[in-house]
Design goal:
Length: 302
């Protein structure tokens, strides 16, 4: 990384009282530069609990939107406007409202990987680290789970006492992995433990030694006595796993790259701070409704 570029970013950050939040799927340079790196849940908490005037969110749009929903008084910047999440785009408000009509007793639990408009028609949000807890704790026996059918089916396995109605969405990075990909890696490294994100299909989750969020995966690898791990989530997680555990080995399943998470570069962060680009703006009525769903998550997920 250019030292000059880094210095310019740090100077502008100081001038503007800004912080940089980054997801584990960001490129290593950005993870090293960030004030805080975390999974979606930790990032939304950090976005709320800090004294900065400006948040530069290195991730995808729904993450920056969550920061703005929870901290409307702050300027929230997404350095690359086009960094979206295809799974978030799979959920459509009018179809969710139709599902609600068809299941009047159901509550809508929405994965944070969703637009602000979808959050606004939801009862509570969840992330991969608290979805089971939220569904267990919510005061309803019937749940409409939006938009990830894989995370939803994982939750349904753990909360059999409730009826979970799944939305047909998925993450293209995780859903494309088949059990054969993991079996092949396991044959090459039989001693390695398999760490899987719940956005993967059931046939892949069935092969896991551990299933959890990006932070959960890194924590498990850090605390576990094994020395070798096959990581079945986006490749960015390998960076923190390795820096935190220099004596352990981490292998990714080939092809697990999220194009959108990789759109942000160091230059984009500088330009973003220089020009206040791209500012997340949300209609106040929609923001208030979406904030309720996110605040409910922070309470029910405790
Ligand atoms: P985490 O909340 O586990 O970090 O996951 C976010 C995500 O987008 C996974 O694809
Ligand atoms: Fe969205 Fe999948 Fe990328 Fe996560 S990895 S941001 S769910 S497309």
């Amino acid at each position: 990384m250019s030292e000059y570029l880094k210095e310019q970013i740090l100077e502008l950050k100081r001038e503007k009282n800004a912080i940089i939040l980054a997801h584990y799927y960001q490129i290593p340079e950005i993870q090293e530069l960030a004030d805080f790196v975390g999974d979606s849940f930790e990032l939304s908490r950090r976005a709320k609990e800090n004294d900065a005037d400006v948040i530069v969110f290195c991730g995808v749009k729904f993450m920056a939107e969550s920061a703005k929903i929870l901290s409307p008084q702050k300027t929230v910047l997404l350095p690359v406007k086009e960094a979206g999440c295809p799974m978030a785009d799979m959920a459509v408000v009018k179809d969710i409202l139709k599902m609600k009509e068809e299941h009047p007793n159901a509550k809508v639990v929405t994965y944070v990987n969703s637009s602000v408009e979808v959050k606004a028609v939801s009862d509570v949000c969840c992330t991969s680290s608290n979805a089971i807890k939220i569904v267990k704790n919510i005061d309803a026996d019937e749940i409409i789970f939006v938009p990830d059918k894989n995370l939803g089916s994982y939750v349904a396995e753990h909360v059999p006492e409730k009826k979970i109605i799944l939305w047909e969405g998925h993450c293209c990075v995780h859903n494309r992995i088949a059990k054969e990909d993991v079996i092949k890696a396991k044959e090459e490294m039989p001693e390695a433990k398999v760490l899987v994100h719940p956005e993967c299909r059931k046939e892949v989750r069935n092969l896991a030694d551990y299933i959890g969020s990006t932070s959960g995966i890194i924590d498990f690898a850090t605390k576990d006595s094994a020395n070798k791990f096959i990581v079945v989530t986006e490749e960015g997680v390998i960076h923190k796993s390795k820096t935190q555990n220099p004596n352990k080995e981490f292998y990714n399943i080939r092809g697990m790259t999220c194009r959108n998470m990789k759109k942000t570069t160091m230059e984009h962060i500088l330009w973003s701070l220089e020009d206040n680009y791209f500012q997340i703006e949300i209609d106040e009525e929609i923001r208030n409704k979406a904030a309720k769903a996110l605040e409910n998550m922070l309470v029910l997920g405790k």
